[in-house]
């Protein structure tokens, strides 16, 4: 009975190993990783840890790949794949360190708390109206004796000379010259700047992708070394800068369209 159970477990483990190898050959790395883990749970063979580490590295899961390869060294410190495992660990350490580095030079902006608004000053009260002035006192009684009457002698009338009529001068005619409105050149400048940003961003993005593909090919071939670390930063920086320039170009183009409309 025990022998039959062992045979069933060995057959299942071999089935998982065969599925994992088939998935890895077809390029289905996620399925291959699951099958290698199932085979390891049943068979406990150190070779499965090595294959699991290689599959995790191809999935760019460098932390899990490092754990699997270190587990191989713990399980089989003198195994036949020790040299290859140590070489793979050195490459993975370079990749992990390159991912942790930050190549951005933009300083972080400090948040400034908004100043507290000053309380509004109370408005001055309107001045009270001045009291009305008292009426002047009534004059004293007039004298009963009326004043003497003075008769004025009329003077001879003076005939003034009539002014000569002024000659009517023709009024100057006013003509208004309306100049045609000038079209602003701002949309043209914005469109030109947009084209330059999009072209420069596309060039940087393409070059970053090209360098990244070359590094992946060299890594797959086993030619990657610690001296290639700046190339990872260059590829990442060019990719980020290219995307930012393309986004800026699209924004400038939208502004030019709005102004021209």
Task: Briefly characterize the structure.
With about 260 residues, this protein is mainly alpha-helical. Helix content is about 60%, strand content about 0%.
Description:
By secondary structure, this protein is mainly α. Among the domains are: 7-100, Alpha Horseshoe (Serine Threonine Protein Phosphatase 5, Tetratricopeptide repeat); 186-260. The protein is 59% helix and 0% strand. The chain has seven helices and no strands. It has helices at residues 2-26, 29-43, 46-58, 62-75, 82-100, 186-221, 229-260. Helix 3 (46-58) runs antiparallel to helix 4 (62-75), helix 5 (82-100) runs parallel beside helix 7 (229-260) and helix 6 (186-221) runs antiparallel to helix 7 (229-260). The radius of gyration is 49 Å and the shape is elongated. It starts with a helix and ends with a helix.
